[in-house]
Fold this sequence. Notes:
mainly alpha; 4 helices
Amino acid sequence: MPRTRQPHRETPEYVAMLRRMVRGLGRRINEHANPSDLVDLVELQRELDDCVRASVRVMREEHGYTWQQLADELGVTRQAVQQRYGKGL
């Protein structure tokens, strides 16, 4: 059975910091307007996509979360989560 949520998580603060950093990177890239810098943004996007897929796999396989539980957290349908992240599981 999935663990219940802990009362305090450091993750939201960490994510907020990363968001600020990503926005700053976007502003910096836009200021310099060098198309080759887009490669960095696309690579960052791929890294994030890989992290999400890995987290979904771990939550499903190691912690027992259902597709419906993940969908409820993400505010989408179960089918949407399965279609997007279920490949290769």
